[in-house]
Amino acid sequence: MKYQKGYLDNPTLLKIELMLNGIRVGKKALDKVMVEMAGTDEMVDGIDIVLSHKTKANVPYKEEFARKSSYLLKSRRDGFFITDGEGEVKVEIPPIPNFYKEKTTTGIPFSSIGDVHSGYVVITPSKRCDFFYSDVECRYCTANFDSNGGTESTYSVDEVLETVEAAHSEGKAEIIYLSIGFGKEEDGGIRFLKPYIKAIKKHFNALIAVEALPPIDNIWVDETYAIGADSVIYNLEIFDKELFELICPGRAKLIGRERYIDALRYAATVFPSGTVASHLIVGLEPPGYTIMGIDYLTDIGVIPILPIYRPSPGRTLRVDPLTTEVIAPVYAHLYRTVKKKGINMHWVRDISIVTTPLEGRFLIDGGRGFRSIIRDFYNTKVGLKTAWGLATLRRKLRVKESGESSGSSSS
Ligand code: SF4
Q1: Which residue among 37, 193, 254, 319 is least enclosed by CB atoms within 10 Å?
Q2: Closest among 25, 55, 27 to 43, alpha carbons compared
Q3: Which of 138, 234, 255, 410 best tests ligand 1's pocket when mutated (most atoms within 8 Å of CB)?
Q4: How confident is the model at residue 119 (pLDDT cuts 50, 70, 90)?
């Protein structure tokens, strides 16, 4: 990408830059971080870094592309710093929770069950997804690799409770994210998650977000709320109908885009403002379509969360990543739109692995580093083509599809 000076000063631009390009880690910094990580399963995906204004970013560092990044994490006596070769900015690396080095009474490392990112813990009690290793698996998914082949293993309610207790005792479990892969049950996974939700609610003063599949009937949305979930997330992932069918064939065939939208619309009438959310992956469809998705979802009271797609080894999709100058205006639009429609944006915040609506406030006029060159990008011919270049992307995906069937690796 064309480097814009000033990204170091703006936490949201820097977060996008780091998530797209990764970071090189200096030897001293790596040694310090690794000492902390010893004996844990952490740092599989990236380093959690706290930027200015408490902006949290999970930054790739191991991947090939990260080794070519212009950004370097270095350590000195007075702390950690990120440099772009010209300037530098002080950052924090949050300490690894102590409980990561401990195990459940059944001998499972807590770090295998709970993934802590600042104030929240992600727990996937069952690694199973019925799409794994089939021709309808979501094309970007790596969850089958992350499960280390143990897709049949299920953590018991007690094992999950022990993990939450350990995280809670260190103040790391304000919000528990419970997630589940696809199953053929009509309830979208809520029947399975119910004992976990009820047990956590009974024993801890924690908020619970449930990331599940839209159930066939809305009574399961009511049930999700009734059993104590504070937030529900049904991830549409791709707004454009045709790309959704290409990239998420299983979801398209067995759930359907319309059902995603209906379930989200209904959930927004049941749950409080700002607690019903849906991912739209930035980089798997032209940004203009992500913007249409933002407008549509916010119209029905849903908060869009925009993870950035980064191809990595093992993933089927090899779409070229976008650049910060293309992505930043999408996040600025997200912030403006959520604010204009009066949806509470304080529930979905401070998440290191995605950029949240509230972080877009640093991208509106006056945000340091958000220069007119970025604002005006979409007024250029290249910008317009990037925003709406659906035909090119569609063709690319079709080429990938035929590449897969002729023997290239699948996820
Ligand atoms: S539903 Fe899709 S993204 Fe989720 S675990 Fe299954 S294959 Fe992966």
Answers
A1: 254
A2: 25
A3: 138
A4: low
Spatial contact of 275 and 283, defined as CB atoms under 8 Å apart: no
Domains of the chain, residue spans: 7-91, 97-234, 273-411
Pocket residues: Cβ below 6 A from ligand 1: 129, 131, 137-138, 141, 143, 181-182
Query: pLDDT tens-digit profile of 329-345?
Result: 899 999 999 999 999 98
Q: Are 364 and 357 in contact (CB under 8 A)?
A: no
> Within 10 Å of residue 73's Cβ, how many Cβ atoms?
24
Long-range contacts of 239-246 (CB under 8 A, 24+ apart): 239/280, 239/285, 239/289, 239/290, 239/292, 239/293, 239/296, 240/285, 240/286, 240/289, 240/390, 242/394, 243/284, 243/285, 243/289, 243/390, 243/393, 243/394, 243/397, 246/139, 246/394, 246/397, 246/398, 246/401
How many A from CA of 127 to the centre of ligand 1?
A: 10
pLDDT in tens, 221-257: 999 999 999 999 999 999 999 999 999 999 999 999 9
DSSP calls for 63-116: STGGGG-S-EEEEETTEEEEE-SS-EEEEB-PPPPGGGG-B-TTS-BHHHHEEE
Among 134, 137, 316, the mutation site with the greatest number of ligand 1 atoms within 8 A of its Cβ is 137
129 alpha carbon to ligand 1 midpoint, in Å? 6
CATH placement of domain 97-234: 3.20.20.70
Q: First-to-last CA distance in the chain?
A: 28
